[in-house]
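Appendix B.2, paired examples.
Example (i):
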Amino acid sequence: MTEPSGSTTTLSEPRGRTTIADGVVAKVAGMAAREVDGVHALGGGLARTMGAVRDRVPGGRPGVTRGVKVEVGERQTAIDLELVVEYGVPIADLAGDVRENVIQAVERMTGLEVVEVNIAVDDVHLPEEEDEEVAETRVR
């Protein structure tokens, strides 16, 4: 799998071609994964730390593709996701819900067949971590 890059997929049709960048697939997958209740964040430890620093830069936007890797072929795509889940959420059920939501969104929006969605749960977000996160993001 590769990080979203500038590469593209071209779908040839009788009346022309449609080109879809890998980053488009990654963004759709990232947004669809975040829509599922119980997903706290996407990305592993280092990716989340670096992303949090980048997000605090004035004008910086949260990285929609953080924790998302895609491999896109001519008609198919495979997606890897790194999740942080909320404490108390059944992980197997959550993974199934995320997988289904990502497949539906990517196939509907891109027309590509999703052949697999691999999910790695890297962390569990605990309720008491909210206070620590707020304290860490304070600017002085």
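Example (ii):
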Amino acid sequence: MTEAGITVSWSMKAADWLDIAAVVQRAGVPAMVAFARDAKAAARQKPRYATFFLKGGWRGLPPASSVPTPRTSSAADRPDWCEDPDCDEKSRMRQSEDSNGLRSLRPCQQCHPNRKETAA
């Protein structure tokens, strides 16, 4: 929660700690942080205690989904561009021509050094 900009006191009763442990098991920390971020934004006064979130809705969070979230590609996932004029900066692919004059795309071996070439 601190990384999300939410700093509160975690001084609370043992029963509240048990409730939080149950919510972590059922809903997961990401759901708790998302709820706390939204609740903080909607609060009239800055929350000072974690029990604000526990009593305000953490107990009612739904169970975490067992379906993995789809991975989206980002610029950080792409290999560095080799800057070769034959290599496309966005796709990191090279166009090549075989002996029959047919053109095809293949991964640039400079940008994708560990990728194996596969026959089409």
